[in-house]
Amino acid sequence: AQSVTQPDIHITVSEGASLELRCNYSYGATPYLFWYVQSPGQGLQLLLKYFSGDTLVQGIKGFEAEFKRSQSSFNLRKPSVHWSDAAEYFCAVGAGDYKLSFGAGTTVTVRA
Amino acid sequence: DAGVTQSPTHLIKTRGQHVTLRCSPISGHKSVSWYQQVLGQGPQFIFQYYEKEERGRGNFPDRFSARQFPNYSSELNVNALLLGDSALYLCASSFGGTNTEAFFGQGTRLTVV
CB of B111 within 8 A of CB of B11? Predict the structure, then answer.
């Protein structure tokens, strides 16, 4: 069964600074990997996805993520954080079928 | 274009009652999935329906059931509500094949008292 670990529960970053959120997955074959963002009381918005091909994927809102098979990781990065990036971020893995398995999430706080 | 719509947005129920949550997928999407998100946790998979057939079920008790209608909308039903059923229930729609991404609705916040 697939699973996802997000080691950081909460990250605080200054506006304009870079951000990196960690994600490690467990799955026996090539996974389908996703990053979602959730604002308080809202649903999930897809930031980016990896299915195959180039291991560095670009997403919306200036985010990117890199798939590293050797490390079973799919870390999310943004070079310069804006106050509006404060939210909860979820990494998810899919097995190419119907079910997504999510991590517990990382809450990002942006300070002025 | 309309996204995934869920209704109601909030509701409060009493222990032991029954609840029905509704979801309308994005036009053209034939698959609907349901997730439960307890406060402070990531979403947990409950069901997926594709072309009106159940394709998968997560580790939830039989009190949880769902169905998909000919127009691809879906209902999630929960019987004999427990306090622990309090959560945000998320619906996601997709085209249903492999390599397809899921688009989530805003969710229904269920509070059981």
Answer: yes
Which residues from chain B sit within 8 angstroms of residue A4, using beta carbons? 42
For residues B34 and A62, what is the distance between their CA atoms, to the nearest angstrom?
Answer: 29
**And the tokens for B68?**
């998909």
Choosing among B45, B74, B109, which should be mutated to test the A contact, i.e. which has the most A CBs within 10 A? B45
Q: Using a CB-CB distance cutoff of 8 angstroms, which residues of chain A are in contact with residue B31?
A: 98
pLDDT tens by residue, chain A, 112 residues: 789 999 999 999 999 999 999 999 998 777 899 999 999 878 899 999 998 888 999 999 999 999 999 999 999 999 999 999 999 999 999 876 668 999 999 999 999 9
Task: Give pLDDT tens digits for B59-86.
Answer: 999 999 999 999 999 999 999 999 999 9
Test the A interface: residue of B37, B60, B89 with most A CBs within 10 Å = B37
Residue type, B82: L
Q: How many CB atoms sit inside 10 A of residue A103's CB?
A: 23
